[in-house]
Amino acid sequence: MSYNPYTLEGKTILVTGAASGIGRTTAIECSKMGARLILTDINENGLRDTVSMLENARSEHGYFKADLTDEVEIKNLVTEVSQLDGLVCNAGVMKLTLTQFITAAEIERVQKINLVAPMLLTKWLVKEKKFCKGSSIVFTASAGGVYRVSIGNGIYATTKCGIDAFMRTVALELGPKGIRCNSVNPGMVETNLINSGQFTEDQKNKELQNYPLGRYGQPEDVALAIVYLLSNASSWVTGTALKIDGGMTLN
Length: 251
What we know:
The chain is α/β, with parallel strands linked by helices and 251 residues long. 40% of the residues lie in helices and 17% in strands. The chain has a single domain (12-244), classed as 3-Layer(aba) Sandwich (Rossmann fold), CATH 3.40.50.720. It has a 7-stranded parallel beta sheet, with helices on both faces.
């Protein structure tokens, strides 16, 4: 076999938000690199579809339907999963709202999914000693909020700043145990998240002018960066927010 520092052979990796988008693509790319996947999402049909797309789809891999805004379901998931070499917290939602129209209900909904859920999932996995030594945790954050702000993006951006701060804290706390923690911070990526009607085509075309590489990201662009952070190729990388934005934040 040829040398490959990015191999995930022998690693078991839990991916949240795996029914579509970046989560699905990450699962597929990890399976190509030899990983055993455990997938979770609230959309069970989407999970089944993702599993069918994985390498060795009929064996090795598993999935659990779970609502990660419910701590009881998080604890049940943690009880069921085996020892992990990697965790990818990818589940997320976006809500564009001008400041004067923000509601407490919307703040709570987005925070529960984007921020509270990955914090509690990480907590319970650590508490129940589910991470092997040398494990890697990766949070999907965003360029939005962490590197750049935009009109109407206050709720979403705040959650992504929060998860990046949590990432650095986890990296500091778990480093002595040999567990790394990083985040990926994408710009606009062609997924259901940005194609859900919150952006008009005119808005998307205008925003595209801010990208020196002349295109929005594809899920694979982010997934392959996650593979790097999960692999031993990044064994001395922790507490890092990896910007993947096509040069957008250069403007």
